[in-house]
Design brief:
The chain has two domains: 2-201 and 380-385, Ribosomal Protein S5, domain 2, CATH 3.30.230; 206-375, GHMP kinase, C-terminal domain (Alpha-Beta Plaits). It has eleven helices and 13 strands. It has helices spanning 2-13, 92-104, 129-144, 151-165, 173-180, 220-238, 255-261, 265-289, 293-309, 316-327, 353-368, and strands at residues 20-29, 41-42, 44-57, 62-67, 76-79, 113-119, 185-190, 196-200, 206-212, 330-336, 343-349, 373-375, 384-385. β10 (330-336) and β11 (343-349) form a beta hairpin. The radius of gyration is 21 Å and the shape is globular.
Length: 388
């Protein structure tokens, strides 16, 4: 793999002398959805699909970007002294955002670099292809320029790129798990404190299957930002009655009181999802420690229903995959990621996996006219140099 990437770099830039090879995974969130921007607990894992990068320093101030996933765009060339967002630069804006914040933080980048990237994460899938790219570029820059950024610093910088450079008001989960993932583990993350706790994330006799709707989402960013805004509105209303910093600090037994304070039903249902999803994530930890796959599966189902009815981020494509998976052998399934398309995750007995995939594929095609794609992934380490 490493040699192929170096050869690909050479085909674009002439030679691969002094080039180094890197990898950043994607991620799947097992449970705890849309609460990372509400100070909640989430339970993601880094996965064996991701973004590869090959890079080397230059002797001038030019930076050249090339993506094998967007060959029609060719080489995007920019100068270190001009990092402003340009729509026509497409994917390269995520990389430019990282360089922008490094420079703004006072770090010295004396020369530019050449970068080749190639990813096997499906875009707009909910498996965090953009966060994977951001974390990859931040890690590469830290390595090339000897900046010694910690993994948490890398994650926070990547989140700032999404929030302030790209205008996507996401939480910290995606960037943090991609930076800090641990092989064969999922990480229970406190998104308010950034504390992380590694847990085995497997059930004997079962496996997680990722199901991609392959539906081209069109409004994800705007709808995501709308949900963030709704949660902020709820927070403002509730702070007149409760003392708290994040919505996830509120407990489920307060919901009747919350409902009496928030008269807007939509805003109340957003809060209901946030508070109950936090409780489900805590229960999921107990189920994992008890090796109780059926309990974990029930929590996945409850999470999906909440995301469908209270948070309204699923849609016919995701609902079709989830409903069909449960009918055909999954003990639990839910949307994973922002929603509005993208991916769902199912927990399935090993002996039912193949039959389930075939049945879900058929159901999904009949209802939506689209082809679903399935991934059986391993949980991997976070971003780093590619050694093999």
């Amino acid at each position: 793999m490493k040699l192929k990437l170096l050869e690909a770099f050479e085909s674009i830039y002439g030679n691969h002398h002094d080039a180094k090879v890197y990898y950043a995974p994607g991620r799947v969130n097992l449970i705890g959805e849309h609460i990372d921007y509400n100070g909640g607990l989430v339970f993601p894992a880094a996965i064996s699909l991701g973004t590869y990068g090959v890079a080397r320093l230059r002797k001038d101030s030019q930076i050249r970007f090339y993506s094998a996933n967007y060959p029609e765009q060719g080489i995007v060339m920019v100068d270190l002294h001009d990092m402003h967002y340009q729509f026509e630069h497409g994917w390269a804006n995520y990389a430019k955002g990282i360089i922008t914040f490094l420079l703004n933080s006072g770090r010295k980048l004396p020369v530019g670099f050449d970068l080749y990237v190639s990813g096997n994460l499906p875009t707009a899938s909910g498996l965090s292809s953009s966060a994977s790219l951001e974390v990859l570029v931040a890690y590469i820059a830290s390595d090339l320029y000897k900046l010694n950024l910690s993994r948490v610093e890398i994650a926070l910088m990547a989140q700032r790129v999404e929030n302030e450079y790209m205008g996507m008001h996401c939480g910290i989960m995606d960037q943090l798990i991609i930076a800090c993932g641990i092989k064969n583990k999922a990480l229970l993350m406190n998104t308010a404190t950034l504390e992380m706790e590694a847990h085995d994330a497997t059930f004997e006799g079962y496996q997680f299957v990722i199901m991609n709707t392959n539906y081209q989402r069109k409004t994800t960013d705007s709808k995501y930002n709308e949900r963030v805004s709704e949660c902020n509105e709820a927070k403002s209303i509730l702070k007149t009655s409760f003392q708290f910093n994040h919505l996830c600090e509120l407990k489920p037994d307060l919901l009747p009181t919350v409902q009496s304070i928030i008269t807007n039903d939509v805003i109340y249902r957003r809060v209901k999802h946030v508070i109950t999803e936090q409780a489900r994530t805590l229960d999921a930890m107990k189920a994992m420690k008890a090796n109780d796959a059926k309990w974990f599966g029930k929590l996945l189902n409850q999470s999906h229903h909440s995301l469908k009815d209270d948070y309204e981020v699923t849609g016919v494509h995701l609902d079709t995959l989830v409903d069909s998976a449960i009918r055909h052998g999954a003990i639990g399934a839910r949307v994973t990621g922002a929603g509005f398309g993208g991916c769902a995750i199912a927990l399935v007995k090993n002996e039912f996996v193949d039959a389930m995939k075939q049945s879900v594929k058929s159901d999904y095609r009949k209802i939506t006219g689209l082809e679903a794609t399935f991934y059986e992934v391993n949980f991997t380490n976070g971003v780093g140099g590619l050694e093999e």
